[in-house]
Each structure stands twice: as C-alpha cells, then as structure tokens.
C-alpha cells in the first residue's frame, strides 16, 4: 500500500497499512513522512495478518521504548498478535532478561566491552587481512561476503571465544534463525538446536583448558561452572543458549549496519574522501550513519501490558505496538535537516538505532567500535571504492529481519 492509497477515500476509520514497508535499504520508504505527519500511530496489518499499531514519530517512539508497560518479552507469548512467526524459542526473545535472572550479566558485559585488551588491534588486523584478500582477488568483489560478514563474525567469534574458522557455519544459521515467515516451520528449531549444540561443545573445549588459556565469554562461563556455586543450576545448554543468541543478534546487526553504511557512502563518493582526510571525524560519522541506517526492516515490537495513551490513540492491553525506526530517526522535530546525511552534524544526535529504555542494546559501544575500525580501514585502503553496479540492480533480501542486499559488488 502506497501513499496514494493511504490518502484515498476512507470510511472514517484509520487506514490499515500492510507492514513491513519497502525492503530496499538505501531509499527511505515513501510512507514514512505521511505516517509521521498524518498518522503517527497508525493501524497496520502484519505479515501474519495480525493488527498492530505502528508508531512513527520520534517522541512517541521514545515513549513506547522507555515505558515499561510495553513489553518485549511478552511478544513471544502464545496467542498474542505477532509481526511474524517465531523462528527461535520463545524464551530467547528476552535474552538480556534471561541473562540478568541467571546472574550472568557481569560476565556478559565484560565480554561485550570494546576496551578489553588487544581487541581493537585484533579487529584492525582482521580488517586489513580481509581487504588484502579482496585486493588480491581483484574487482569487482562482493563487499558483503568478502568483508562485512566475515568482519562481523570475527568480532563475535573473538568475544565469545570460538574459532574464526567456524564462522561460515555460524553465519549460515542466521539466514534461517532470522527469517520472517508467515507461519512457523519445523526446521527452524532444528537450526536453533544445531547451534546450541555447537556452543555447548565449545564450552566443554574451554573447560578442558587451564584457566589462563581460556578466552571470550565461554571462557568466563567455564570459570563460573567450576568456581561459582550460584551457577551450579545452569546447564551447558543454558550457557550455550546465551552464546547463540548473542552471536546471532550481534553478528546479523553489525553486518547489516556495516553493509548499509558502506552503501550509503558509495552513493556519495565525496564522503569517502572526506573520511579519509578527516579520520578524527569517524566517531561522529558513525553516529550519523546509525541514524541514517535503514537495516531494521520490521519495527521494534512491544506488547501493551496495560491500556496506555500513545498520542491520540488509546492502545489497549494485549495489543501489539511496532516502533518504526526510520520514522523516528528521520523526524524533523528531533533532527535538523534529517533528510541530509551530514557527517559533520554538530548538534545532538539522539537516534534510536540501539533502542531506548530497558532494552537499549548492551553491545552499543562494541557495535560502534566495530563500525569505526571497519570504515577506517576501508577508506584508508580503498580510497577509490565505488559501487560496481547500478544501485537499482542490487537484489534486496525478502523475508528477513534486516534489510540487506544479497550482494554488494564494488570496484576501486
């Protein structure tokens, strides 16, 4: 449904818009501005056919994300309206809540700290290694398969304490785990438990090592299993479930963001030159690219735990609310010149790319470091980087939690 249909003759009720919107990640969906101005809380129909409220203004998006009467955990309950069928176990949806309740938060937050010794140097070396391989092969090259995916996998393999050589099998599982299907399918569980088994095996590998030889989050978990009586009730599968969910959510998010950030720069080649001349601006550039990024294709879901007024709409207990990030992050009420990708943006950049409230992404600092290092190396090593095909010929993935081009062909 386009803007023309939204503005067409009505029957006095709020329009019912089919959601999600466009799957292209390099063009802001045309409905965003209309929704924000005319219906900042709009009635939509999700992929499963369920009704939901779509919130598209910055102020109302922030209200929903920060109000604990809107629950992420309860979006996995039986019988509630859904965006799409669950393809991971319901208990994994509230992963950070599970981590906190299991007493694992301290270990997880230490593993997600980008300032841990040697991590930035390791990532910079891996980025150079990946660029070396691309250059040796020659262009055009697929920057997503050759750089964004393996660089994101490298970060998360290091953080978790598993071999980088296993990245392909782990990344391939994400293609199934983060599908957005209309109905459940049996082998989504097979996919999930295959990776749980893998991480349980790597946990046992860490247990076999001397304490000083252990690495990553699984190394920390091995220490808890041995020395912490408060963790005695936790099974290997419970530890592995935390690792699987952190790898999945982290790797798919960082790779998708990096892919679309590079694409945004490729469509504005002067910005690549700007970043090469001004590496000191990289942190601010990443913030602006986070605001600009359209990788979250389906909205952030919450279930109302009570009747709550959102704008002029009384949202009822049990209803599904979806926060449209591309609406909020391009809202002129919150951002000056929001339709301009401005790497010199000096004013506050309070984007919602990492969410807000209780479910603000715990790996936000790690994600920023990942992007800064990747872009620093790319603009340094490949100053002539350019899109090797017309942008309209990119093939965008459907049925996936992220907006992603299947390939990102580049030359230099």
Automatic annotation (TrEMBL):
Record keywords, A-Z: Heme, Iron, Membrane, Metal-binding, Monooxygenase, Oxidoreductase, Transmembrane, Transmembrane helix
Record carries keyword Cytoplasm: no
Transmembrane segments: 238-266
Pfam families (UniProt xref): p450
rRNA-binding in keyword set: no
SUPFAM superfamilies xrefs: Cytochrome P450
InterPro entries reported for this sequence: Cyt_P450 (IPR001128), Cyt_P450_B (IPR002397), Cyt_P450_CS (IPR017972), Cyt_P450_sf (IPR036396)
Family the UniProt entry places it in: Belongs to the cytochrome P450 family.
Name recorded for this polypeptide: Cytochrome P450 121
Organism: Streptomyces nojiriensis
């Amino acid at each position: 449904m386009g803007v023309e249909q939204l503005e067409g003759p009505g029957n006095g009720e709020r329009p019912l818009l089919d959601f999600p919107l466009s799957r292209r990640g390099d063009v802001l969906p045309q409905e965003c501005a209309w929704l924000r101005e005319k219906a900042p809380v709009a009635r939509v129909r999700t992929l499963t056919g369920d009704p939901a409220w779509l919130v598209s203004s910055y102020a109302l998006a922030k209200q929903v994300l920060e109000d604990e009467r809107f629950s992420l955990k309860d979006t996995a309950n039986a019988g509630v309206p859904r965006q799409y069928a669950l393809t991971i176990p319901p208990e994994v949806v509230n992963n950070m809540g599970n981590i906190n309740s299991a007493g694992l938060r301290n270990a997880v937050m230490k593993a997600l700290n980008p300032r841990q010794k040697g991590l930035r140097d390791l990532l910079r070396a891996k980025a150079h290694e990946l660029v070396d391989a691309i250059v040796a092969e020659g262009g055009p090259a697929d920057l997503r398969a050759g750089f964004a995916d393996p660089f994101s996998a490298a970060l998360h393999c290091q953080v978790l304490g598993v071999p980088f050589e296993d990245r392909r099998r782990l990344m391939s599982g994400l293609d199934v785990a983060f599908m957005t299907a209309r109905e459940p399918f049996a082998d989504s569980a097979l996919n999930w438990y295959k990776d749980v088994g893998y991480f349980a095996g790597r946990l046992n590998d860490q247990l076999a090592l001397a304490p000083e030889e252990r690495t990553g989050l699984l190394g920390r978990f091995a220490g808890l299993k041995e020395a912490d009586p408060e963790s005695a009730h936790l099974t290997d599968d419970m530890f592995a479930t935390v690792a699987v969910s952190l790898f999945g959510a982290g790797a798919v998010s960082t790779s998708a963001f990096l892919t679309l950030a590079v694409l945004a720069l490729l469509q504005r080649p002067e910005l690549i030159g700007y970043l090469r001349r001004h590496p000191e601006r990289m942190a601010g550039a990443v913030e602006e690219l986070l605001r600009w990024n359209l990788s979250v294709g389906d909205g952030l879901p919450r279930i109302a735990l009570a009747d709550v007024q959102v704008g002029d709409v009384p949202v009822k207990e049990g209803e599904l609310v979806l926060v449209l990030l591309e609406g909020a992050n391009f809202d002129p009420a919150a951002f000056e010149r929001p339709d301009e990708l401005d790497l010199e943006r000096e004013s506050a950049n309070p984007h919602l790319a990492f969410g807000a409230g209780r479910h603000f992404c715990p790996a936000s600092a790690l994600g920023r470091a990942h992007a800064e290092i990747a872009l620093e190396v790319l603009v340094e090593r490949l100053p002539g980087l350019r899109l090797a095909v017309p942008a309209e010929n990119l093939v965008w993935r459907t049925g996936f939690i992220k907006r992603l081009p299947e390939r990102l062909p580049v030359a230099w």
